[in-house]
Specification:
Layout (H helix, E strand, L loop, with lengths): L1 H20 L26 H4 L1 H31 L6 H32 L17 H18 L5 H13 L2 H8 L8 H6 L9 E3 L16 E6 L8 H8 L1 E5 L19 E5 L11 E3 L4 E3 L6 E3 L5 E4 L11 E3 L5 E3 L16
Antiparallel strand pairs: 1-2, 2-3, 3-4, 5-6, 6-7, 7-8, 9-10
Helix pairs in contact: 3-4, 3-6, 3-7
Length: about 350
Amino acid sequence: MAQDDNSGKDLAAANSSSHDLLPVDTGTGVVSPDAVENPGHPEHRQRVTDLNPKKEKQAERTVFILFFLSAVGSLWAVAAYMMFPIDGQMELVRSNNLFIGLGATLALMALGIGAVHWGKALMADHESVDHRHPVRGTDETRARAIEIFEEANEESGFGRRSLIRNSLIGALVVFPLPAVALFRGLAPYDEDPVELLHHTMWKKGTRLARDPSGAPIKASDVTLGSAFHVIPEDLNDAKDVLNEKAKAIVLLMRLKPEDLNELPERKNWSYNGIVAYSKVCTHVGCPVALYEQQTHHLLCPCHQSQFDVANHATVIFGPAARPLPQLPITVDDEGYLVAQSDFHEPVGPSFWERH
């Protein structure tokens, strides 16, 4: 009987313990079977930088070095852009991409690692609760906002850690410079871009050649529904091959002659259903290279502008503002496709035409 009493006491103690551990639904008074004990916060462990002033100084120097390396990476990217100009030689193109990429990588990576290390090793390390409440523009709210900024400044050490603060500011100041240098290089320095893009290597009698082999194309090679990526046959004789190619690249397609809806003044710009249009999108200059032979649509993969080849490459969708320029073509005595002239309008983005 005594044993039964002890069992009853143990059961009561267990039930009491379960009520202490499991939350009770205040509406029904029923203990949820899935409820678990609130584990609370683990015991706070101080970092080595909190306990050892030497380690704190070492961490501060590490963050400074990382921010300094970020600034060096940004400046190196600008220097590499100038040291390895893109002038048509593939070796210089590779070096340009490699060293600018390394500089930009160092700038980004060092800045990110430095910021993370600063937060983990030096900023205030304690738990806090941010109680949500309706946002009001009262004096108390404004005063508390100022206090929060002051607390953040104190906890981060931004105001008193001048070495880190100044190195971060320096890294952020030089960080945009590579982008400025690279984008500035996209525009000509001393020439009118409209004039530059109004003239390409195409001229009367220039043969159309395959890109990149340079093999001339006969009209008989272009089958119905096919598309050829085309360059001028004498492209490699140009002084600045890459820039000239960027302006002169063409997409060549063959449709059924009855599917072409040609303007009277352009009737002789095609040859037996073969048409040639600039491959440079009139939106921002991406290569228009996706051809759908059933619909006769050209798609620019950058921003999804679509052009109707059967109707003078007019814009049927997307942000492009004007049709693709058409290259007038014919055949020579040997049956090779040749240009009748240059484009009759500037190639590339429409904004180049604005003065």
